[in-house]
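Moderator note: this is an archived Q&A kept for reference. The question asked for a predicted structure of one protein chain; the sequence and the answer are reproduced below.
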Amino acid sequence: MDEKRWFWVTLTLSCITVISVVFAAWELLENHFFRGADYLTLHVLYITRGVASSLLLAFWAAWFVLRQRGKAEEVLRRSRERYRGLLEDFPGAVILFDGGLRVVEWNAPAEKMYGYGKVEACGEALRTVPVGKMEELREFMRRVEREQAVTGVETTRLERNGREFPVELSLRPFRESGEPVYFLEATTDIRERVRLREKMLEIEKLTSMGKMAAGTAHHLNSPLAALLLRVQLMRERSADGWKGDLEKLEEGLQFCKHFVQRLLEFTRPVAASPRRQDLAATITSVADFLAPVVHSRRARLEVDVAEVRGRHVMADRNHLETVLLVLLSNAMDAIAAGGEIEVRARMGEAGRMEVAVRDNGCGIHAADLERVFEPFFTTKDPGKGTGLGLAIAHNLLMELGGSIRLESEVGKGTTARLELPEELTPASGGAR
């Protein structure tokens, strides 16, 4: 308002000044050149002076107004460029839409985040809100109209390909003179934040499990140790006919005891006791241990270790048995009654031995294969798996200098492929 008043005051004073200068100059000319002129001449001079004053005043006023308008337009242009620059440089997606959800403004980060260009987005209905979130957005708009703040809300939005992703949303009113209220939505992609938060939750779960397991370790290890001692005493006192079964039972208890210890120590590195282990003998031992469970499922377990018989790996026996038990247990969980499991070991390249554990079970979806080695991730039904088995197996194989990969097809089965470095004796090393 002050600028308008100053404009009119300036224009009025400048016009008065122009008229005063014109009249003063005209009076000097008349006194100097037309002092003795007759009435008609003086009358023409007065009319001429009025017309000239009007024209000059009109030109002056038009020039002044146009100059001020040019300045105002330049200020407006710079302001618009500044506004556009701020809008485009804003780190999040900014969308301006009306009460009917028709897009009015769309910045460059919104193009990148949602996949729609500004030209195809503006003037069209808002296409980034999932159907299940539409009522939520309407409620946010009602809150904004009631002057209630909507900031820092976690929700979801849609990419052009139809995939939902998490965002942090803020919604504010945007009003123009004489126009209905618009809604300014600013969103930030928080997929990485959510992923890190989920990882932190997994770590917290793992830490909590470690604390809980530490408190119950004594209750698990004590009964196992007592059972193991009794089995050893029974084996020493029994007749020869019982020794084979008791040795198997003792071996199973030893395995369970070490497996529980390894589970408790999963969150911290432990000192292993690597020794030369006969790979074929270890595979056969674990398969024999699981044989009763396989038979109870009316399944078939085929073991082929002829090619690696007499070959050795440098490993902790309990670690190696744990890896094989995890893979065979997963295979048994995957197959239906009467299914098939195959374990085949062979010599690979560059002094590596390969073990393949194959089943004809349900298989794993391709999207889940990338996560199967993450702690607490499982594709099994709730209550049927902890998601720790493959994570433990992966860590153990890394310690052994080996590797593991899974190949799977839904409805056809899964194959786990292990690679382990062969431990050569001096004689065999020279032969090779």
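Archived answer notes: The chain has a mean pLDDT of 78.
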